[in-house]
Design brief:
Elements lengths: L3 E7 L6 H5 L7 E7 L5 H6 L7
Parallel strand pairs: 1-2
Length: 53
């Protein structure tokens, strides 16, 4: 069986580098990780960009 292809778009949180660097892997998931500050459920729901302090 071929690996499941998953694209994850998330904010640049401190716990994501192990995924980005390949420290955490699995043979059943082909992960594409996109880290961006603009990834926010609120911004997608409202169509507006998130604001930041």
């Amino acid at each position: 069986m071929s690996p499941l292809q998953v694209t994850l778009v998330a904010r640049d949180y401190d716990y994501l580098p192990p995924l980005a660097m390949g420290d955490v892997t699995t043979d059943k998931v082909d992960l594409i990780l996109i880290c961006t500050f603009g990834a926010s459920p609120r911004s997608h729901a409202t169509g507006r960009s998130p604001t930041c302090c």
